[in-house]
Amino acid sequence: MIQTVSTISLVLLAISLVFCAYRAITGPTMPDRVIAVDTIGTIFISIIGVFSIKLNQPHYFDSALIIAILSFSGTVALGKFLIKGECFDRDID
Amino acid sequence: MIEILISILILVGSLFVLVSSIGFLRFRDIYSRMHAVTKATTAGVCLTLMASLLYFSSHGNGINGKTVVIILFLFITAPVGAHVISKAAYFTGVPLCRESVVDEFKEHIKKP
Amino acid sequence: MNSLILKTVATPVLYLIVSFSVYVFFRGHNNPGGGFIAGLLTAGAFVLQYLSFDSKTVKSNFSLNWKKLIPVGLILALGSGLGGMILGYPFLSHSFGCFYLPLIGELELATAIIFDLGVYFVVLGTALTIISVIGGKD
Amino acid sequence: MTIVISPFVFGLIVLPFLHKIKLRFHKWVGIVPLVLFLTILKYKSSIINGNIVSEAYQWVPSFDVSLSFRLDGLSFIFALIITGIGFLVVIYSKKYMHSESAISRYFSYILLFMSSMLGVVLSNNLISLFVFWELTSISSYLLIGFWFYKEKSRYGAWKALLITAGGGLAMLAGFILMYTVTGSFEISQILSQKELIKSSPFYLTILVLTLIGSFTKSAQFPFHVWLPDAMEAPTPVSAYLHSATMVKAGIYLLARLNPVLGGSSYWFYMVTFTGILTMCYGSIMAIRQRDLKALLAFSTISQLGLITSLLGVSTETAVIGAVFHIINHAAFKGSLFMVTGIIDHEAGTRNLDELGGLGRKMPFTAVVALIGALAMAGIPPLNGFISKELFFEAVLVDGWAGYVLPALAVFGSIFTFIYSMIFVISPFLGTYKPKEKTVHEAPWGLLLSPMILGVTNLALGIYPKLVADIISKGAANILGKYVDAHLSLWHGFNVPLLMSLIVISFGCLLFSRLNYVKHIIEKIQMKKINLNKLYDLFQTGIPKFAGFITEKQMTGFLRDYLVYILSFVFLSVGLTSLFFMELSIPNLNLERIDVYEYVVAAIMVVSSIFLLFTRKRLIAILILGVIGYMVSLFFVLEKAPDLALTQLIVETITLVLFLIAFPHLPEITEENSKRSTKIINAAVSILTGLTVTFLMVYSKAYKIYESVSSYYIDNSLLLGGGKNIVNVILVDFRGFDTMGEITVLGIAAFSVYALIKLRLGGRKYE
């Protein structure tokens, strides 16, 4: 029961992954692509969640957490970059 | 009983994610796309993680705290990420789509 | 432009990530983790800091000079290697044993942890030196 | 063992230390060689009745290289020469160099040389012999270049080092080949398995390589160029290194390996004819020299040629003659060099044109010079005559060589006779040319050692039995069978005596018409292919060629470097595997791969193709991010959490790094690179891609070596104490590699820091 359900949800997630990838590649404006990459990261976490259920292996949550952390910092970096052209500014009073 | 609950959670979660990516695909401008994506995907992912939390608490060796941490972390970071990106989009002059009606942010904006 | 939201979020996230990386570090011997990943994680956390605040404030908050971490790490790694030699074993040979700590209970520690700590510091130092030099021009 | 090490210790550590505390100890430095000489002499009795003294110390047990020493007849003779001549040279140079400021440095070099030379002669292990051999080259480099402020001596030192060390390398190759054949480096074992080497297919290569090593060291014909330039060294050094000991190392090697390599026709033709050729060439060139030391240098080359040819013949008389001549040559050549030193010291010049009529001013030196020269020329009362007789007797070999060899020998000896006459007559007799310095008899210090050598020449000449027993022992070692040397001044009327008479008569005749002879040689001397020019061409040519290559390769475009590297990968891996490995399409068990892995793979392929056509750099970075995530997803699907973690973090950190570096990167200019570069790039990338996939598939399908992972799986918990095998390997089993990696990481960080700071420093940042 669990196995079949997790396979179905994996397929669904894979499809949504394809949509995001499409948006990442075509994406008219730059922020679209940034958001696309961010969502790919988040979908990634759900894939890992379902996958660990399927395999009954709780070890993958570390990578899931790391993806969450780091896709966030990626998005923030890209955001700042889009606005200011450089991410690290020296000093703002 | 737990099995059914977990499978329902997984299915609903992945459906949420699917719906959000469809929305991501179909909406016309960046701002509405962001609505769809950030909110729905985060909800979907949290549901799936809840499912895995339940699954491992019943099958595996007790509740592993990581899933809770992930859910917490996602709740914190998703909106902030979206906020930064929308600000970036707005300041780089991404136009609102034709149908959008009002833009309050324009008045009290000062160019960075 | 640095939005207030980002600033407020940055610090709690920093503590979250650093605690997670410490967790990953100590767990490294038995399941996925280890010095290398923990080092990079902490580097990621500090990158977030650099992103949200400017490098001046980051420098003031954390008076750590990243370049100094690298030699510290190398000395640690070398020290743990030489330790084995003092007892007559060949260079870099590690041993492990179970210790009973009052609070935490039965703990299984390996001398490799010191070597791992060395790796942790070097990786952290390297990543942040490069990032801070290219980015912050401090 | 203590014999070899003591001068080493004394020279390198004691002397500089003493020099520092201003104790002018170098007055008594002579004691060291004297003490050594006596200790070696003590072994004489045990050597005579045949037992061999040997000691061995483990050095690198895994390659069974050991510092093992062995004193038998041959090395006994050489050790005596080294320490004896060493002692005389040290006394001589105390007087000769006392005006020199860096005299303690000079003596430490001399002692360094002495110990390395003793090491060569006494070592029983090929590798330790090689190490000491190179040490002699280094110490000769230091000694030739002693007056380093003179450009000529630097040039000479460098040339000597280059040629001798180069030869040494070839010799090392020969030794290692010998090791592969016999399975041990110990000379004693190799000597016992001589049939094995002679019959092995490598015999010729071993022979050639070892010969190169010894010919370069003993300045035989093609490699003799460095010896004349080595005369820039202070005269006592030339007396010690470049006449008596160092140049004989090559001869020693030939003698020591004679039983192993000798006996075959290759050996006979190669060694004998190089020897005879060098002898004639050396003696002819010696006549044309204007500088006394250069004359002696070429005469050393010809005498060494003589000994090598004797070793080439390697009959009983030849070997006895060779060993005897080694001793004689050391004696008379040493004294002649010291005499030149005296002339140079007193008259201020060594040029034959400016010298003349010193006989009246320096009677004693004249007598000593006369004894030395007569010994070299091979005139009856002296030892030179006996070894010349033995040489002529040995040269009478059967077969067609029996006619050519004696003719060349006589021809060479005639010229030897002539240049010995030149050495005696022109400086000492004839009209006295006034010098700015008032010439007077040399002080006793300078005269003592040549006098001793002169006396030994006379003694050996009149009563050769003195050394007969040692020589027979030495010859026995060379030939590997018992030899009884019966040396006597008078051999009765036989062909060698006749040949000597011819030599003497022709010598006097030609000497009288010297300028005419020189004129003829001048003409036939080929100007173009002068070996020195060849060496200089070699010296300047290589840097120019290297410059050309680097310029061609270092174009400054990262793209070109990639093309070079990748095409090399393809050529080396792809082509070799295509030709050498029998290839069949391995069966990839595809059914194991699940459906969603295909999806992930598809995304990767699509995005990487899209990557090709992006124009904006930011999009490229993003797509790279996507590909990175897909790879880490693969790791997750393949159940490798550690890898997934690392890949993810690295992916995002690089993403951030790219963004940080973005403002520094130049804009993507519309590369209007011509079609040809595009095609090359495409071709190279496709081919490399194919090679890599091929490698992956091939390595997966064919298990040539059983995988090592089983070892790690079952005892990572036992030994490493951790269940996470990857981490245990990283930290514990392969700790050393990780140590290396983190050091490299540190260095990378510092270099980035330095580069950025440098670049920023240059441009004043606002």
Protein topology:
The complex is a heterotetramer of chains A (93), B (112), C (138) and D (766).
Chain A: H1 2-26, H2 30-55, H3 61-84
Chain B: H1 2-26, H2 30-58, H3 65-91
Chain D: H1 2-20, H2 31-42, H3 44-48, E1 53-60, E2 65-71, H4 73-96, H5 103-122, H6 126-144, H7 151-182, H8 187-192, H9 194-199, H10 203-217, H11 226-229, H12 235-244, H13 248-261, H14 265-288, H15 292-313, H16 316-347, H17 363-377, H18 383-395, H19 401-428, H20 444-462, H21 465-479, H22 495-512, H23 514-524, H24 531-553, H25 558-580, H26 595-613, H27 617-637, H28 641-661, H29 675-701, H30 709-720, H31 725-733, H32 735-762
Antiparallel strand pairs in D: 1-2
Helix pairs in contact in D: 1-2, 1-5, 2-4, 4-5, 4-12, 4-16, 4-20, 4-21, 5-6, 6-7, 7-10, 10-13, 12-16, 13-15, 14-15, 14-19, 15-16, 15-19, 16-17, 16-18, 16-20, 16-21, 17-19, 17-20, 18-20, 18-22, 19-22, 25-29, 26-27, 27-28, 30-31, 31-32
What is the helix tally of chain C?
5
Largest interface pair = A-B, 51 and 55 residues
What is the count of distinct domains of chain C? 1
Number of strands of chain A: 0
Shape of chain A: flat
How many structurally independent domains of chain A? 1
What integer is the average pLDDT of chain A?
82
Q: Can you tell me about this structure?
A:
The complex is a heterotetramer of chains A (93), B (112), C (138) and D (766). Helix content of chain A is 81%, strand content 0%. Chain A has 93 residues and is mainly α. Chain A has one domain (2-84). Chain A is flat, with a radius of gyration of 17 Å. The model of chain A has no long low-confidence stretch (mean pLDDT 82). Chain B has one domain (2-106). Chain B contains 3 helices and no strands. In chain B, helix 1 runs antiparallel to helix 2 and helix 2 (30-58) runs antiparallel to helix 3 (65-91). Chain B is elongated. The mean pLDDT of chain B is 82. Chain D has 766 residues and is an all-alpha fold. Among the domains of chain D are: 264-512, no CATH class; 555-704, no CATH class. The chains are: A mainly alpha (93), B mainly alpha (112), C mainly alpha (138), D mainly alpha (766).
Please give a quick description of this structure.
The complex is a heterotetramer of chains A (93), B (112), C (138) and D (766). Chain A is mostly helical and 93 residues long.
Provide tags for this entry.
heterotetramer, B: 112 residues, mainly alpha, C: 138 residues, two-stranded antiparallel sheet, 5 helices, 2 strands, 9% strand
